[in-house]
Each structure stands twice: as structure tokens, then as C-alpha cells.
Specification:
About 25% of the residues lie in helices and about 25% in strands. By secondary structure, it is of the alpha/beta class. Bound molecules: alpha-L-arabinofuranose. Alpha-L-arabinofuranose binds near residues 68 and 344. Keywords: Carbohydrate metabolism, Glycosidase, Hydrolase.
Length: about 500
């Protein structure tokens, strides 16, 4: 493989928010994963798991989306404030019909964000809510003066308003959020967004519900009919390795056909971004409106330990590579993609953390986010990758997937994924516009794609120092083992 990059011609800044996460009232994400309550035997800080807080602080998560997902469009925020014993209980109809006791509400979410140093991103209810409900939520959270909602917030123990930067106007309103037509949702968006007010200094970045995967018509209608009222348009795309419920698959059993399909479906994210961007650009040449990929990640259909309502799945080296590829794609399109949120944070889908009782483990995906976080806020670098093909059944993909950035101190970071499950690869990187003098590296790899961390062996897949490279003049020669993720720092 040959990679050529121009360090002195940086593209756009990689927004930190590309490293965002998503937490929904689904399965064991919020309850058990984040919130255990002050009386729990599990060590906690004000009711939030202390081990999780520490791990997430280390990860430097910039932003956290809540309360859903499909749950957002049946959530009535007023049920989740005030004394816990008086909070209403409700049925979580989307996710297993379990009883939601509303113990984790607005105060708890924003406090958790404070504890992990992340910006809160709240998603409001368009599907079964009302305009006044949404408008009062924003007033409750952000209004500093005297008003019914601000007074109620104070009675509930929070004197000062919070700063709230990001607000989503509904979720998947083409599906679980109301099965709407784009024309209808565009009208609703304009109406609802009008009442998502900016109080005082608090300026809200308004995110509209965007397309389901390749619904380009939705993007066209939203941009043409409501583009000027929004700051961001969301895109949801999951890597379903086996199609939407059509075939069976598992994260913990290896099958090369599934692996190749997983890669193809992951790489499809790039085409989706490019095509939605092209449509958006017709109405927004300056790229003012951001594309917000606020749900992405793997979603396996049949997985030991998974029930349809709870979406718990194992996280393997396969997920690590999926994460590396997606983050590379977001870097390369950072001119339009300015936020992305992995689904979901803990115990649901492609999580960075899994818990069982008082135990917690960091998944291979966690380690990729940790290795890649050096790109946050750096400038994306254009690169050309000439890679041998990984082929199957007449289809081909590049074996090596990459991205690069340069930070304010002039350090170049190069992220590389070797997608081939069996073959190592030598990569020659031609660095232009910078004299490379010193290199350090980190690698994440494993013996098998299906390797994962367990509560007994929590570090089976964990990063270590990487030294299989040499500098020759302006070229960096790297030898990557099969199925690996490498991040290099070049000074
Ligand atoms: O992340 C799980 C679900 O996937 C979300 O609730 C929904 O928005 C999407 O369909």
C-alpha cells in the first residue's frame, strides 16, 4: 500500500463532537449502566456509577445525546423532575414494555454530563409531544429569570439555569417518531424550532430529524423547505452485518463472508455522507448546516445474551475495526460532518462499556475511541491511498483504510486500519510538507476477529505500543498485522 499526504494543505477542522455518544432509556444503558441510585451497593457518586464516570472522563467524551432514540418521542420530561418518589411511572413501549420509573430525568442527565465533562444534547418529543411541552423544557433548563418553568426548576433544587447548546427536534420521525412524510415533518420542524428559544446568552444549535440511511428525498425536502431554520440535519446509519433481520449473524462467531459484508456495509457510510452532502450543498453552499450522524454503530440480529427489547451485544475486534473505519470517514468529511454519536454508550449495541453487577469492562471500541481522540480539534489532512484489494465473490474493497490530521503543535497523527482478517500489509507513507523526525505508535489487534474482553479477562483486546515502522527520508514504512488498528504520532 502507498499513502501520499500533504500536511501543509489541511482541510477542515475535525470537530470534537465527532467523538460523541448516545444514551437512551433502553435495556441496561441508563439504569445499571449509568444510574444505580445512591443506596446501591455498587460504588457510586450521587447515584451514578463511579467506575463509569472515571472511564468516560478518561475518554474525553465531548457530547452525550439523551433520552433517545425512539424513547424520545414518547418521553414527557415533566414526569422526570421533582422528588423521585413522586415521579410518574410509565411503560417503555419501544423497548420491551418495561416500567420506567423516571428516576433518571433532566437534572440527573445534565449532572451526569457535568461529571464526565460532556456537553448535553437533548432530543425533544415531536411524535407524541406538543410544541408547548418542548418550549417549556427549554425554558426550564435555560431561563435565568422568573417564569413558571424557571421557578419550578428552582423549587426542584437548581437555582442557576444550565447551559444547553444542542437540541434535537424529534427522532426518526419518518419511523418510530410518527411515520411522517418529509413535507409534514418539515412543517412541524419549522413550527417546533420556532419555540426552542434562546434565553439570555444561551444559544441553541437546532438539529432536525434527517434521513433514514439513503432516503435522499427526505434530505431534499428538509433542506428545501426548512434548511434555513436548522443548524444540523441528522443521519442514522447502522452497520447491520446481515441485513435488516433477514439473516442470522453473531459477533462472536467468525465467518469470512459475514466479515466481508460487515466491511462493505461499514464503508457505505462514506457514500451516504457524500450523497447527502451533495444534496445539502444545493441549498447550503457554505456548508452552514452540519450533517449530524447521531446514531451509528454495529447492530447484530442474533446474539447470545440479546433480547429484541434490550439490544445487548458482545463487542469484538470486529467492532473495533468498524469504529476505526467510521471515525476515519468522519475525519475525511469533517467539512460537513460536525457531530457523530455512537449508539450506544453502555450495554446497548456497539457500546464502549459493558457492565455486569458491580463489574465493568472496556470494549475494543472503547480503545479505538481512546487511541483516536488525538484527532479531536485537529485539522484533517488530504490523503491518497493506493491499496491492494481485499476481494470476495467478485467484490473488492481496499485492504487499508486511513485518515490523518495535524494539530496546533504541528504533530501529525495517522490512523490506519488493516481490514484483511488474515494478511499483514506493508504501507509506505509519503509525507509531504513536513520533515518527520520522530514517530511513536499504538496498536490494537487480536488473534481472531471475534476476540473480545470478558469480565474474567478484561484486557484480552487492549492497545499496546507499536514499533513496526521505520523512517526513510520523507517516507514512513509501516508493517501492519492483519485485523489491526494503528495510530501513529509523527513529530
Ligand atoms: O439505538 C436504537 C434505536 O435505533 C433508536 O432508538 C432509534 O432511533 C434507532 O432506530
Amino acid at each position: 500500500t502507498k499513502i501520499r499526504m500533504n500536511v501543509d494543505m489541511p482541510l477542515s477542522t475535525i470537530d470534537r463532537n465527532i467523538y460523541g455518544h448516545f444514551s437512551e432509556h433502553l435495556g441496561r444503558c441508563i439504569y445499571e449502566g449509568i444510574w444505580v441510585g445512591v443506596d446501591s451497593p455498587i460504588p457510586n457518586t450521587e447515584g451514578f456509577r463511579t467506575d463509569v464516570i472515571e472511564a468516560l472522563r478518561h475518554l474525553q467524551i465531548p457530547i452525550l445525546r439523551w433520552p433517545g432514540g425512539c424513547f424520545a418521542d414518547e418521553y414527557h420530561w415533566k414526569d422526570g423532575v421533582g422528588p423521585k418518589e413522586k415521579r410518574k411511572r410509565m411503560i417503555n413501549t419501544h423497548w420491551g414494555g418495561v416500567i420506567e420509573n423516571n428516576h433518571f430525568g433532566t437534572h440527573e442527565f445534565i449532572r451526569f454530563c457535568e461529571l464526565i465533562n460532556a456537553e448535553p444534547y437533548i432530543c425533544g418529543n415531536v411524535g407524541s409531544g406538543t410544541v408547548s411541552e418542548m418550549s417549556e423544557w427549554v425554558e426550564y433548563v435555560t431561563f435565568g429569570g422568573e417564569s413558571p418553568m424557571a421557578n419550578w426548576r428552582q423549587e426542584n433544587g437548581r437555582k442557576e439555569p444550565w447551559k444547553l447548546k444542542y437540541f434535537g427536534v424529534g427522532n426518526e420521525n419518518w419511523g418510530c417518531g410518527g411515520h411522517m412524510r418529509p413535507e409534514y415533518y418539515a412543517d412541524l420542524f419549522r413550527q417546533y424550532a420556532c419555540y426552542v428559544r434562546n434565553y439570555g446568552e444561551n444559544k441553541i444549535f437546532k438539529i432536525a430529524c434527517g434521513p433514514n440511511v439513503d432516503d435522499y428525498h427526505w434530505t431534499e425536502v428538509l433542506m428545501s423547505q426548512a434548511g434555513r431554520y436548522m443548524d444540523g440535519l441528522s443521519l442514522h446509519y447502522y452497520t447491520f452485518p446481515n441485513g435488516y433481520g433477514k439473516e442470522k449473524g453473531s459477533a462472536t462467531e467468525f465467518d469470512e463472508t459475514w466479515w466481508f459484508r460487515t466491511l462493505k456495509r461499514t464503508l457505505y457510510m462514506e457514500e451516504l455522507i457524500e450523497r447527502h452532502d451533495t444534496i445539502m450543498t444545493r441549498y447550503d453552499l457554505d456548508k452552514r448546516v452540519a450533517l449530524i450522524v447521531d446514531e451509528w454503530g454495529t447492530w447484530y440480529n442474533v446474539e447470545p445474551g440479546t433480547t429484541p427489547g434490550f439490544l445487548y451485544q458482545q463487542n469484538t475486534m470486529r467492532d473495533a475495526l468498524v469504529a476505526g473505519i467510521n471515525l476515519n470517514i468522519f475525519h475525511r468529511h469533517s467539512d460537513r460532518v460536525r457531530m457523530a454519536n455512537l449508539a450506544q454508550l453502555i450495554n446497548v449495541l456497539q457500546s464502549v462499556i459493558l457492565t455486569e453487577g458491580a463489574s465493568m469492562l472496556l470494549t475494543p471500541t472503547f480503545h479505538v475511541f481512546d487511541m483516536y481522540k488525538v484527532h479531536q480539534g485537529a485539522k484533517s489532512i488530504p490523503l491518497h491511498v493506493d491499496s491492494p484489494a481485499y476481494e470476495m465473490n467478485g467484490e473488492r474493497i481496499d485492504r487499508i483504510h486511513a485518515s490523518a490530521s495535524v494539530n496546533d503543535s504541528g504533530i501529525l497523527h495517522v490512523s490506519l486500519c488493516n481490514l484483511d482478517h488474515a494478511a499483514a500489509e506493508e504501507i509506505e507513507i509519503d509525507i509531504r510538507g513536513k520533515k518527520a523526525t520522530h514517530v511513536t505508535g499504538t496498536i490494537l489487534t487480536s488473534e481472531a476477529i471475534q476476540d473480545h474482553n470478558t469480565f474474567d479477562v478484561p484486557d484480552r483486546v487492549s492497545p499496546c505500543a507499536f514499533r513496526d515502522y521505520r523512517l526513510e527520508d520523507d517516507r514512513l514504512i509501516v508493517r501492519m498485522p492483519s485485523k489491526s488498528v494503528v495510530v501513529l504520532a509523527v513529530e
